[in-house]
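Collaborator request, handled under Task 6.
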Amino acid sequence: MWFSSAAAAGGALCLAAIMPFTYWRVVQESDPINLLVFMLGVWALARTRDLLLIPLVLVGTLNRETTAMLPAVYLLARWRERPAGEVAWRTAAIGGAWALAYGALRLGYGDREYYCAVVMWTENLKALGPTVLVLLLFGAMWGLAFVGAKKGPTMLRRSLWLVPPYIALHYVVALAWEVRLFLPLAPVIIPLSWLVLFPETERAAAERGRSKRKPR
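Structure tokens returned to the collaborator:
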């Protein structure tokens, strides 16, 4: 694994401290489940249990369509790390799981009226409030994650590429002051920033890993 138990516990406590401030105005019951799906997705990739993403996306999409990001996370994580054919069909399978679940929901429930306009970028940008809240969500960790990416694992480093388009998309089609929408980025932002904040814990974990690989 990438991180020591101490760093993992610290990251979990950090996330626990952040979450209450994401619901200051709007509570959605689907948010904790959505966050769990993304955390399990990162765990599955870390453990190289890639095929677990198929049922995870299939079930997770019944809760929130944001899981469309996970096929892209898989593709970036395994590109040129695994055979091209394998990456192609697994990406298609994970994406197909999302399309199947989302399509079934649309067929079953039809179109529903949104609680806000479809395009919201002018609303999000005409005042500083939404952006201030987004910046406060992870604070300095927004920047520290990009610094930590230099020595982070390939999957997290490449997943960071999806952060700007993810934020931009939510500025266009959502209300940015609902910072709960950015919680799925936590499994990427927090671990990478932890590499900068607590490098000694990662050195200790790396040393333990090397000692376990030594022949006895």
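The cover message to the collaborator said: "The radius of gyration is 18 Å. Confidence is low (pLDDT under 50) at residues 211-216. Please let us know whether this matches your experimental observations."
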